[in-house]
Amino acid sequence: MTRDAGLPMHGRWWLVVALGTACGDDDGALVSSTGDGGSTETLATTESGPTSADTTTSTSSEGTSSTGSTGSSSEATSSEATSSSASSDGSSSEGSGSTDSGSTSGGPACGDGSVDVGEDCDGDVGTASCVDLGHTGGRLVCGASCVFDESACTDFVHPGFAEIVITEVMQNPGGLADDQGEWFEVHNPSLIEAFQLGGCVVEGGGMGEAFAIDGDLVVTAGEYVTLATAAAPGFVPDLVWPGAFTLGNTSDTIRLVCDGTPIDEIGYDDGATFPDPTGASMQLDAGALDAVANDDGGNWCEGVADYNLGDRGSPGAANVGCFPVDYLVDFCRLQFPLSIDAVQGDAVDVFGRLFIAGLTDLSGVDDPAPQVAAAVGVGPDGSDPALGVGWVWHAGSPNLGYGPLSPGYEANNDEYQATLVVPAPGSYDVAFRFTGDGGASFTYCDGQDAGSSNGYAAADAGQLDASPPPPPANLYFSEYVEGSANNKALEVFNASGATADLVGCELRFYFNGAVVPGATIALAGDLAADDVQVVCDDDIADATACDVLAAGSFYSGDDAVELRCGGVALDVLGQIGVDPGAEWLVGGVGTANETLRRSCTVSTGDANGGDAFDPSLEWTTTAQDDLADLGQHDCG
Fold it and tell me: What is the reported pTM?
């Protein structure tokens, strides 16, 4: 058997079979079969040979086989082969007479896991790809007959200059480390054409800093795709780049190159013209989505939507406008709660809904914009909030948890939340208000389903009933230090038998007989039963026992000191509105240059700051600058 060296290994073969003659018979024929069209040529014949019925010729789709016979029997003229057949893909099969490509005689066959002569593949495609076969991407598979199946290959072209635009960059995340949270976004502004980025290269500003985009990355018309440093930067990116590539936190370059042609490039500049945020992306204004406008840092601004752990941006989605745009509020409503019973000073979260056509109906979750703001208000019962008389407003913000699983979800509406502080005891109206023009005008919303669509009605406002706070805990002064220089300290004891919340408690200093405090120190935190909190001048000589170090002016021996919680006086040391001279001094117990400790016979403070003060009745005295007992009040 011979092969034409001018044809591929698995392509066309020349097949010549010489058929012998029977003993004593001079008649014979030599027939040629080729693989380039199935034609058959008779090279020699005899005048008196057998009839055509004695000679058979079979032709396959790409090659033919022929046998020559004399009489009724067929004999091979060579020991090398007794039959020859051409398979459908041009390969030949040699054996003892079988022409089945799935030979049962143990020879090569499709499905045996080995790529044989005439096969492209067997089971898998190995290292071959659609790109190797001239396509730009897609998935190459091995067909049932062990030839490549290119039906899933794609031929999207690489973009040319400016046909892909870099639109958003998270160069310095706050919720995640840089190697987990960096990403950038590209956009295809075409209305009709998709582009293949597989095989393109992304270059950075550092020497040799670049990565190739392996495999498919198709950007369809109008699509935004993301490339990130890790698989979970708060969303699912379209491509995770190799770890060696990073984005500089202050300044860097991002360049996309395809087939050697620069497609788009930006160079951010440490805040000189581009924004320089931490925890927010740099995003290109929605009106500047082209490869020239994105070179101007003035067309970029900080991302606003929270997408992960406080990091803000819009990865894989359209950017909002960077420049203020006035919106018309089409509808708003006080959503929840519509009735509030709370204690004075409590903080209550209140929710409102907003509809602005072309903004809040974009994504199905909140779509904030710089000019849109919300607030919850508390005002006199039955009054009109638009008149503003007696109304107090608390600023709101988008509810980051709002979405399809929210109660009463409305896909076209955004939800905002605000926290109101419950005022003095009484009954009040509650309303929401929204602005779409940065506060130039407001739309007021009551709590009925129709909201603002049929105007505001006081009868449909939310209702707040504020009750007085519970009586303050039994707290009083247990030690007073009025030492040399800045050795000043006050110890507060919790005699209530339960943990006391010190929020709303404060120390007030009345200097030189004043009736209004000249200095105030706010307390905070929880104070356990039978425990003390020590407040010291921040320049005290020994701060070991101090819980709070406060700056500013402290008292002298002639200044009154008051402990108040929730606006109620609990204990007063001295007499408010009276200047005693150098100090209050009775029976050798005074308020200047001494340390005073509360007697254990005392179980509650002296809340009357206007009565005469005799320190000897409830206090014992020790030496100046004696801090030894500070931090405990042991009467056990």
Answer: 0.42
3-state secondary structure 237-302: CCEECCCCCCCCCCEEEEEEEECCEEEEEEEEECCCCCCCCCCECEEECCCCCCCCHHHCHHHEEE
- Hey, what amino acid is at 357? A
Which of 357, 385, 391 has its CA nearest to residue 372? 357
Q: CB of 3 within 8 A of CB of 11?
A: no
Q: Alpha carbon 104 to chain centroid distance?
A: 60
Query: Coil, strand or helix: which one is 52?
Result: helix
Q: CA of 545: how far to CAs of 136, 537, 573, 627, 631, in Å?
A: 74, 12, 21, 9, 5
The residues with which 264 forms a beta bridge, in sequence order, are 256
* pLDDT score of 107: 65
C-alpha 534/C-alpha 553 separation (Å) is 17
Using a 10 angstrom Cβ sphere, with 0-12 exposed, 13-18 middle and 19 or more buried, the burial of residue 534 is buried
If pLDDT is split at 50, 70 and 90, which confidence band does 106 have?
Answer: low
Q: Which two tokens stand for residue 19?
A: 């058929």
pLDDT at residue 271, rounded to an integer: 94
CA 309 centroid distance within chain: 7
Answer whether the bond into residue 517 is a cis peptide, omega within 30°: no
Angle at 394 between CA 393 and CA 399, to 5 degrees: 135
Radius of gyration of the chain (CA): 45
Q: Give yes or no for a contact between 482 and 536, defined as CB atoms under 8 angstroms apart.
A: no
Half-sphere exposure of 276 (CA within 13 A, CB side): 12
One-letter amino acid identity for 28? Answer: G
Six token digits for residue 50:
């057998």
d(CA 188, CA 195): 8
Report, in this order, helix, strand and coil percent for the chain, each rounded to 5: 5, 35, 60
Q: What mean pLDDT value characterizes the chain?
A: 84
Express each pLDDT in 435-486 by its tens digit.
Answer: 999 999 999 999 999 999 999 999 999 999 999 877 788 999 999 999 999 9
Q: Is the dihedral of CA 157, 161, 167, 170 positive or negative?
A: positive
Element (H, E) at 181: helix 178-181
Q: What tokens does 95 get?
A: 């054996």
**Count of CA atoms in the C-beta half-sphere (13 A) of 434:** 32
Q: Are 382 and 429 within 8 A, CB to CB?
A: yes
What CA dihedral angle connects 440, 446, 450 and 456, to 10 degrees? -60
Q: What is the DSSP string of 112-180?
A: SSS--TT-S-BSB-TT--TGGGT-SEE--EE-TTSSEE-TTEE-PPPP-TTSSEEEEEE-S-SSS-HHH
Q: What is the token pair recorded at 159?
A: 């973009």
Distance between CA atoms of residues 294 and 266, nearest Å:
7
Alpha-carbon span 406 to 415, nearest angstrom = 10
Tokens 């040699």, residue located? 94
Cα atoms found within 13 Å of the Cα of residue 341, Cβ hemisphere only: 0
Residues sharing a CB contact under 8 Å with residue 334, sequence separation 6 or more, in sequence order: 350, 352, 376, 430, 431, 432, 445, 446, 447, 451, 461, 462
| Closest CA relative to residue 254, chosen from 268, 272, 270, 240 | 268
Closest CA to 541 of 592, 484, 492: 484
Give whole-number Cα distances, 276 to 175, 315, 323, in Å: 16, 18, 17
CB 185 within 8 A of CB 223: no
